[in-house]
């Protein structure tokens, strides 16, 4: 479900974590429960939710799991001292053992257990690396620690020097736009941090191979779907930021989604836009179980037949509430004096279709962004989200786009989609307006809400001239103030108008 429908907006209580998950009555409203109801065994190894401790783990215990090996705080992010609970039992300490070795062993044993039960099964394996290390036996943090095999690897690797790496001119909006350029000591430290993460990820590659080999040994690989993904991307030195993941930028939101299994075309790369809200619906579909009412996502097309249907998968809803920050490594070296970091709540969309690849955002301080074709295609037009198309045309130094009403007559053509900015922007505003409070079907098909007759299914179709007045009269997306959580009163208007002519 979308975050605005569960309002778990932080990793710590009272706004997030396991206690908040329970308080929002979500324990019985999750896909492992639905899988079990359909006769599927469910297993999990690794980090489930932040804030799971020995004190709250069983009050109540996470629902829906046939077997579990949960990482428990404070041993979730310690590379050499993880702490576990198997099936809700007494805590098991693993001092001196590398986290990847431990989770690999527990996952392999879980595969054996699942196969022995002789029932269809789901297994989630969730390593908590290459996260910043957090000490399980005291305070303090440390860079990712690789296994011995990978120490010293990638010795010459560095953060890619793309145009948005520590740029000479400010970029993005809100407080990030005011960050100073990093000094050499900072970006050298970030390069070393980047190498540390690569070394740990190499160990995760070994883990994946071991899991696949175990499936082969049990002769079930050809009848198993495997998803490889992550919960977030990561930026390091892009846009003058230190290491972190809280932005809507490409490095943070465009993450791997790799799938193999029965009827999945081999070697195919697709540009269909999907998000993690689609996973539960996809898992239910793979087990031939009915879709659950209330899901905000839809099943991803993964077979040749489904991919050939060409259903519109055009948009991703991106939303964040809370506080930003220069980076997880701030304080290790001379860092930026971060001001305004609490002005970090935003609503955004990624929208991708034939000829266009756009990112549009509205921030709680009133700033707006629009980027097109970033990272791919036409680098001269908008390299790596460096040129905000909504920046003031009369004051080039003002890149904030803090002008929600002044572009309705802007005739500047946005290449690729070949539409004037004054025509495009109201459509994007309306799309965000629908998605920021959507539920169920509206999240899956926001154009269907805006155009109930069903004659508009894509941004390109919505750009028809006959809809200009309708979109220009839509309420504007805005925040009353910058808050740490979702409050409906703070984000009115909540409802977009519908086209009825």
Produce a short descriptive summary.
The chain is of the alpha+beta class. It contains twelve helices and 15 strands.
How would you describe this structure to a colleague?
It is a single chain. The two termini are 32 Å apart. The chain has helices at 17-23, 31-37, 99-116, 184-217, 250-253, 279-286, 304-307, 421-435, 441-444, 446-450, 459-462, 468-472, and strands at residues 41-46, 67-71, 81-86, 92-95, 121-126, 133-134, 141-142, 226-229, 257-260, 315-320, 346-353, 356-363, 368-372, 413-414, 419-420. 23% of the residues lie in helices and 14% in strands. The chain is globular, with a radius of gyration of 23 Å. Mean pLDDT is 91; it is low at 393-397. The protein has a 5-stranded mixed β-sheet with strand order 4-3-2-1-5, with helices on both faces. It has a 4-stranded antiparallel β-sheet with strand order 10-11-12-13, with helices on one face. The chain is α+β, with helices and mostly antiparallel strands and 501 residues long. Strand 6 (133-134) and strand 7 (141-142) form a beta hairpin. The chain has 12 helices and 15 strands.
């Amino acid at each position: 479900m979308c975050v605005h429908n569960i309002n778990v907006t932080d990793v710590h209580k009272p706004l997030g974590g396991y206690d908040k998950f329970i308080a929002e009555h979500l324990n019985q409203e999750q896909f492992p429960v639905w899988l079990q109801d359909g006769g599927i065994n469910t297993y999990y190894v690794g980090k489930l939710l932040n804030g799971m401790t020995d004190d709250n783990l069983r009050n109540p215990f996470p629902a829906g799991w046939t077997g579990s090996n949960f990482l428990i705080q404070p041993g979730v992010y310690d590379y050499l001292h993880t702490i576990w609970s198997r099936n809700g039992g007494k805590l098991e300490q693993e001092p001196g053992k590398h986290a990847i070795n431990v989770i690999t062993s527990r996952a392999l044993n879980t595969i054996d257990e699942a196969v022995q039960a002789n029932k269809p099964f789901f297994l989630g394996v969730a390593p908590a690396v290459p996260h910043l290390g957090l000490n399980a036996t005291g305070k303090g943090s440390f860079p990712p620690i690789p296994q011995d095999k990978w120490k010293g690897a990638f010795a010459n690797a560095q953060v890619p020097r793309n145009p948005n790496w520590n740029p000479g001119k400010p970029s993005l909006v809100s407080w990030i736009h005011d960050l100073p350029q990093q000094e050499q000591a900072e970006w050298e430290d970030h390069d070393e941090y980047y190498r540390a993460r690569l070394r740990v990820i190499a160990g995760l590659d070994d883990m994946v191979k071991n899991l696949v080999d175990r499936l082969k040994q049990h002769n079930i690989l050809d009848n198993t779907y495997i998803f490889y993904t992550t919960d977030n991307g990561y930026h390091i030195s892009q846009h003058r930021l230190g290491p972190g993941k809280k932005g809507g930028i490409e490095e943070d939101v465009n993450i791997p989604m790799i799938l193999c299994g029965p009827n999945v075309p081999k070697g195919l790369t697709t540009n269909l836009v999907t998000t993690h809200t689609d996973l539960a619906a996809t898992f239910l579909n793979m087990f031939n179980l009915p879709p659950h009412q209330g899901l905000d996502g839809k099943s991803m097309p993964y077979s040749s037949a489904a991919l050939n249907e060409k259903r519109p998968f055009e948009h991703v809803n991106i939303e964040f509430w809370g506080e930003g920050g220069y980076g997880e490594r701030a304080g290790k070296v001379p860092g930026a004096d971060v001001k305004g970091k609490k002005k970090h709540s935003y609503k955004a969309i990624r929208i991708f279709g034939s000829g266009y690849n756009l990112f549009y955002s509205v921030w709680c301080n009133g700033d707006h962004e629009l980027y097109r074709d970033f990272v791919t295609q036409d680098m001269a037009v908008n390299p790596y989200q460096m040129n905000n198309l909504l920046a003031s045309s009369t004051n080039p130094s003002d890149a904030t786009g803090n002008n929600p009403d002044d572009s309705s007559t802007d005739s500047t053509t946005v290449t690729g989609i070949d539409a004037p900015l004054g025509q495009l922007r109201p459509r994007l505003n309306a799309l965000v307006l629908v998605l920021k409070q959507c539920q169920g079907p509206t999240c899956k098909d926001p154009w269907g809400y805006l155009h109930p007759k069903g004659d508009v299914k894509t941004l390109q179709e919505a750009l028809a001239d006959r809809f200009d007045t309708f979109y220009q009269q839509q309420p504007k997306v805005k925040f009353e103030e910058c808050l740490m959580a979702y409050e409906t009163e703070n984000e009115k208007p909540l409802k977009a108008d519908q086209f009825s002519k």
